[in-house]
Amino acid sequence: MAWITKKSGSLEVERRSQPYLTDEVKKKITEVYLPRYETKHGALIPALHAVQESAGWLPHQALMEVAEFLELKPADVLDTASFYEEFWLKRKGEHVIAVCRSIACEFCGQKEVTEACKKKLGIDVGETTEDGKFTLIELECLGACGGAPAALVDHTLHEFIKPEQVARLIDDASKHSGHH
Amino acid sequence: MSWTPKTEFPVLTARIPTPPFGEMKDRRTVWYDEYAKTGGYDGLRKALSMKPADVVDTVKTAELRGRGGAGFPTGLKWTFLPKSEDPNNPGVRYLAINADESEPGTFKDRLLMDFDPHLLLEGIAICCYACRLSKAYIYIRGEYHHQAMVVEKAIKEAYDKGVFGGKGLLNGASTATGEVWKVECHLHRGAGAYICGEETALLESLEGKRGWPRNKPPFPAIKGLFGKPTIINNVETLAHLPSIVSNGSAWFHKQGTESKIGGPPSFGTKLMGVSGHVNKPGVYEFDLGIPLRVMVEKYCGGMRNGKKYKGAIAGGISTGILGPDQFDAEMDFDIGRKYNVLGLGTACPTIFDEDTDMVAVARNIARFFKHESCGQCTPCREGSGWLYQLLSRIEAGDARTKDLDLTLEIATSMGAMPGTTICGLADGNNWATRTIMNKYWDEFVARVRPTYVPVTMSVGAAARV
Q: What ipTM was estimated for this complex?
């Protein structure tokens, strides 16, 4: 009876006293997003984006705060948040390097780019460096097939990447502060 | 092979430098002032001087087919909206713009959002006026950070200049109906899910839920976003509207091609994003019907490193592959019936050279569908996972001949029977895997070891007992 012992059945939500849903984010949701949609549920995805942008990721406490603010069930919020790949329910690094692994990129040299990233950061795909600065992931199509191989470094798209440029890309990214 | 373009000037890329009319490196974003100075919003002004039903008729007679992949006639889709007795007050009806461009190989809508966002906004305004829609949501994929920023800024400009907002379209310009028509337009960012490009999943996602496609009927035109009538159109489809309304349907018929096999025509130009092993990949604008070979050899600088052509994904991986002998395939809506692929898709071909491992191509595609299957229907959820495992095994050289049959059996049964899955994702997986295996069968056979069937036979005295 796996469902009795599975973790989510008795999940204890880690809490901190400072809320993730800051007044600034609340204001943005109320003034910008809520008027756009017919239901409060409609504003959920923009709200999650806003919280993630300010908090860096979406801890369970943040999801519960969003649920309370939008008058939704926490389960509904988790349902949406866990479906979409871009919502981080686990802590990510300050910068995210996302290498595209889809058709055009893989056959135009993506594997070498990924290897170069792994070597530079000393981590495997899906891992975060020990200092919490970088997370390396592979994604499906970034919509930049004409510039294959492509990768997103935080919010910036880089195209026609050569493996020898990877070290510089990563160094440049670490000079800027991440999207927290 | 000779082929002459019918269009002597760019239509969708009029303000975006595109070979042969300009250089890709000169591309930059066109904002409102420049857009308006170069004839922008003239199409909308013309539309406002016409009766909404006449605008719909123009698009219908132009026989514009949707540019999002399925090629469904746009004007016909619009007529599925419920008829209202008072055209000036039909209640809340929505337009959802599909900018969730996430199928591998496809990157054409990005061009419009990067460089000419007002062309899209003008198209939205025309569609909303013609179909009596009051609110438009641009559903843009989460990974398009820069494009979201550009479109957001363009929407703000459009509000400031009175295209959208409280005063009514173009600052409350007088319309043929005698009343101003007000349109709200918002940007909605997705969050990384291919399935949200399916129209009903897109609506679910707009409602803040997980992107699970809905059962149809009811169709979105009757019961869509928040239960209200909703039209869903692709970015490029809407970008065609200003020029069609300005120049009329006869002008539109001069571009593109009639069907050569008696099917519905493929009029107009099309944005085609070429990727893979060519010298000059990127988004171009061609008449529908351009042969793939001409596209690659004449416009895209030929094959990279002088290699030979081996195959091409027709238009996004779900459409399947054009084989080694199908380099001359014409890129129009007949392509599916003529060359044994699913269809034209988004007309964004990915070209492979002779060194490409087609087993790896099939594996890459299977991984994509396994990753992006939403998990709602069993044939797709389970089948895509099994296909990926089988193809990985074939690629690694661990498979036997019977695994090929098993792979084909799964591939041909997934989504093939209508009603076994809700949306077309399984069907795309089916077509991609099946066409690659069938068209490059020898490569697959060379990768597997024969299956030994143990045979026991009794001989001599024992056989006679």
A: 0.93
